[in-house]
Write a structure and sequence with these properties.
Blueprint: H1 2-21, H2 29-48, H3 53-75, H4 80-87, H5 93-105, H6 108-148
C-alpha cells in the first residue's frame, strides 16, 4: 500500500513540475498532475500484473490521452496542455540513457537491443495518443450526426 502511495505522489509531482517548466496556466496544474498520475498508475499497475512494458506503456498513454480530452473539455483549454506533461512519466529516459551508454562503451549488441526497446516504447506512446484521438474523433462525429438528424 505504501508503494502505491509513493507511485501516486511522485507521478503527480513529476507531471506537475514538468507542467510548471513548460508554462502551462496555473489553473490547469492540478489537472495536468492528475493526468500524468492516472497514466502512470495504469502503466505501473498493468506492469505489476506481468503485462509487457510496451503494452503497459500503450495503456498508460491511452489513459493520458483520454483524461487529457476530459480535462480539456472541463477547463476549456487545448488538449496538448494536458497531453504533453502527462506523457512525461512514461518516457523511457533511463532506457535511452542505457542505450547511449552501451554504445559509447562499445557494447553494440546490448546498445542495439536496448535501442529497439526504446523505439518500441516510444511507438507505444505515440500509438496510445493516436488511437485515443481516433476514438474521440469518431465519438464526436457520431454525436454531431446524431444531433443533425
Amino acid at each position: 500500500m505504501f508503494d502505491l502511495a509513493i507511485q501516486l505522489a511522485f507521478s503527480f509531482l513529476t507531471t506537475a513540475a514538468f507542467a510548471i517548466i513548460t508554462n502551462v496556466p496555473k489553473r490547469s496544474l492540478v489537472s495536468c498532475g492528475l493526468t500524468g498520475m492516472l497514466g502512470w498508475i495504469v502503466y505501473w499497475g498493468t506492469g505489476q500484473f506481468g503485462v509487457s512494458n510496451v503494452l503497459a506503456t500503450f495503456l498508460g498513454a491511452f489513459t493520458v490521452a483520454i483524461f487529457s480530452h476530459f480535462f480539456s473539455r472541463i477547463k476549456k483549454m487545448p488538449v496538448t496542455i494536458f497531453n504533453i506533461p502527462g506523457i512525461v512519466p512514461l518516457v523511457p529516459g533511463a532506457l535511452a540513457y542505457q542505450a547511449v551508454r552501451n554504445l559509447v562503451l562499445g557494447d553494440y549488441v546490448v546498445a542495439v537491443s536496448i535501442s529497439v526497446k526504446v523505439l518500441l516504447v516510444a511507438g507505444a506512446i505515440a500509438s496510445g495518443l493516436v488511437i485515443s484521438e481516433v476514438f474521440n474523433h469518431n465519438i464526436r462525429n457520431f454525436r454531431e450526426k446524431k444531433e443533425h438528424f
